[in-house]
Every structure is written in C-alpha cells, then in structure tokens.
Amino acid sequence: MDEVELHGKDVYLIDAKHTKDGNLPSLLDIKDALLKMMLFVNLENVQVDGKDYTPVPIVKLTIGGNFEINKLNESQKKTLESLKKETKLNGFLLMINKVLVN
Fold this sequence. Notes:
Blueprint: E1 3-7, E2 10-19, H1 27-40, E3 46-48, E4 51-63, H2 74-90, E5 93-96, E6 99-101
Parallel strand pairs: 2-4, 4-5
Antiparallel strand pairs: 1-2, 3-4, 5-6
C-alpha cells in the first residue's frame, strides 16, 4: 500500500503505479496492484486510532507526459478496459491522474 487517506468514515487504501512517458504502467505493475486489491477488498474491522472505518481499495495510475486516454494504442486500450472490468467485478476503484474512472 502506497497511500492511506481518511475521508469521513472511509479509509482509502491506495496502491499507486507511476510512469513518466505518457503510457500506462507495465502489465506487470498492474497485475501487482490487482493482487494487492484482492487483499484489500477482503479487509474487515479496519480501525485507525481506535475508530472504525470502511476500507475503500483504489488502484491509482499516475501517468506523466501528455497522457490522453483517447490516444492509447489498441493493446493499452484493452488493458484499461480489462482493468475497469476488474474494478466492477471485485469492488475496488480506479483512479488515473487524480480522477476516478468508471
């Protein structure tokens, strides 16, 4: 886990993957994040300083350069679509450059 943020009664558990070149992180990095999400979505009884919080697992992709989703190549588009499906099937969120993606 790279980041933890408290938002009301939620605790965001964020695994972040970064690139500087305007492309998605490597498939290996994305698979690593997915493995961590499987652990995070199964957490129960999460407490911070003795207070109960609801865990909200998030994969965060920070992409530098001139990143634009509509400029991804076909392979990257497939990877992103697969990642979006995983978020829905397994109950975690996806964030790209600080924006939640549905």
